Amino acid sequence: MASLHHDSTCEHEQPVDAGTSGGLAPWRERLAKQMLLDHLAEGIPVARLAEACALSRSHFARAFKCSTGMTPQDWLRQQRLARAKELIRTSDLSLTRIGLECGFYDQAHFSRLFTRAEGVNPMSWRLIGE
């Protein structure tokens, strides 16, 4: 019977302590998250995040996922959606403008990802919140 090799340095389902998991050091995680937030609208290449953390691109990507439970791109998408929800709740900006300010390619892209995450489109979500 064949045995499967399991890499125990990182459990991908849950964020874990970087000290024992192969994840990012706390300062690197904070730096990467802040850089992602600073570039919310336009995005930032993973290679640039890795360089700022003095890690190779592949090591950074793996360690980020170990630390947060998601890829840098997924974490950024989650932050974009959170910012969009905040703007929908607190501003009168059009949904098109909100989508663009949060880094989505266009209204359709924003609406598709928002609906997938929230189970309802942004306009309905705005109306429910009123």
TrEMBL record:
UniProt keyword annotation of Transcription present: yes
Keyword Phosphoprotein: no
Pfam families: HTH_18
InterPro entries reported in the protein's UniProt record: AraC_XylS_family_regulators (IPR050204), Homeodomain-like_sf (IPR009057), HTH_AraC (IPR018060), HTH_AraC-typ_CS (IPR018062)
Any GO BP annotation: positive regulation of metabolic process
Main location: cytoplasm
SUPFAM superfamilies: Homeodomain-like
Main function: Regulatory protein of the TOL plasmid xyl operons. XylS activates the xylXYZLTEGFJQKIH operon required for the degradation of toluene, m-xylene and p-xylene.
Protein name: AraC family transcriptional regulator
Native organism taxonomy: Bacteria, Pseudomonadati, Pseudomonadota, Gammaproteobacteria, Pseudomonadales
